[in-house]
Amino acid sequence: MSWPRLNVKDWTETRDTLHMWTQIVGKIRMALTPPVNHWWHVALYPTARGLGTSAMPYADGTLDIEFDFLDHVLRLRTSDGETRTVALESKPVATFYAEVMRALPGVTIHPVPNEVEHAIPFAEDQTHKVYDGAAARLFWSQLIQVERVFDRFRNAFVGKASPVHYFWGAMDLAHTRFSGRLAPQHPGGAPNCPPSVMHEGYSHELASFGFWPGGGAEGAFYAYAYPEPIGYPEAPVRPDAAYYDEDLREFLLPYEAVADAPDPDRALLDFLESTYRAAADLSHWDRSALERPTAP
Q1: 161 secondary structure, DSSP code
Q2: How many whole angstroms from its chain centre is CA 56?
Q3: Which of 102, 131, 160 lies at the terminal end of a domain, its last residue?
Q4: Domain presence at residue 44
Q5: Would you call 7 exposed, middle or buried from its count of C-beta atoms within 10 A (0-12, 13-18, 19+)?
Q6: Strands of the chain, DSSP E
Q7: Domain membership flag for residue 3
Q8: Can you give the residue range of the structural domain that contains 48?
Q9: What is the pLDDT of residue 1?
Q10: Residues 203-256: pLDDT tens digits?
Q11: What InterPro entries does this protein map onto (predicted)?
């Protein structure tokens, strides 16, 4: 199966605009949805047309919001049958923010982005304003492929594990496995993100995996463990293109190394499985209790 190709340098401005737009919708989800452990309630999910929130309580019914990267609209649907749309086109974040919030009277959010160095309040952001619909559609197509393989990987684990979901803070599609043990308090340090956010996200020992549109010419896959066990950076992982990044303290695998592989699915699964085994074995997880004897 062909994997979509999208050079990061060719869509950086669109990526950064879309990052802010998904933060706005993600913060609406956070405002309307009851909390779930590790902030799973704030994430978005790949859909058949883009990225969506799933159903959320709103007014006397429910609401869902979807970035439709085929028709290039943000679609807001309520359980009373009403649909409102906001065009996905080149426009400042400030304009997009005003249009979305005008469509949802009574909803308020923290109107400043998280996990970015220069956090411009949404209502003031005239900097991010480029939208290339073809690039956004390709990015979504990448997410669909990644989700498909991550779901295969997720199937082999019967312990506590997250859905495969899109975190708008760092713009990554992620999946996390847990050993069941508490972890030491995370020190925090993410830009424009309170330490309490990291404390909740990393409250339990984990191995996490994801994809984001950075870290490589066409984006990158990552894997890390928290807390990181002794010997993890030196652990043997596959495929050969994977490496440990000392600054990020993560294993990285360039997207292009997967897309160019004779069997891209197998290359990505090798990365996920080998980095998981490194984290689980070095941290002495009870793998016999956490994994299926044989994965389908």
Answers
A1: B
A2: 19
A3: 131
A4: yes
A5: middle
A6: 45-46, 50-52, 56-58, 61-68, 73-78, 83-87, 165-167, 172-182, 204-212, 220-226, 243-245, 250-254
A7: no
A8: 8-131
A9: 64
A10: 999 999 999 999 999 999 999 999 999 999 999 999 999 999 999 999 999 999
A11: DUF5996
pTM for the full predicted model = 0.96
Looking at the domain assignment, is residue 39 inside a domain? Answer: yes
Task: Tell me: do 234 and 284 sit in the same domain.
Answer: yes
Same domain, 120 and 140: no
Residue type, 22: T
Structure-token pair, residue 104: 């949802």
Count of domains forming the chain: 2
181 and 284 co-located in one domain: yes
Q: How far apart are CA 7 and CA 276, in angstroms?
A: 28
Q: How far is the C-alpha of 71 from the C-alpha of 185, rounded, in Å? A: 44
- Model confidence over 171-196: pLDDT tens digits? 999 999 999 999 999 999 899 999 99
Based on the fold, state whether residues 123 and 151 are members of the same structural domain.
no
Supply 268's token pair.
């990505």
Q: Angle at the Cα of 163 (from 279 to 256), degrees rounded to 5?
A: 65
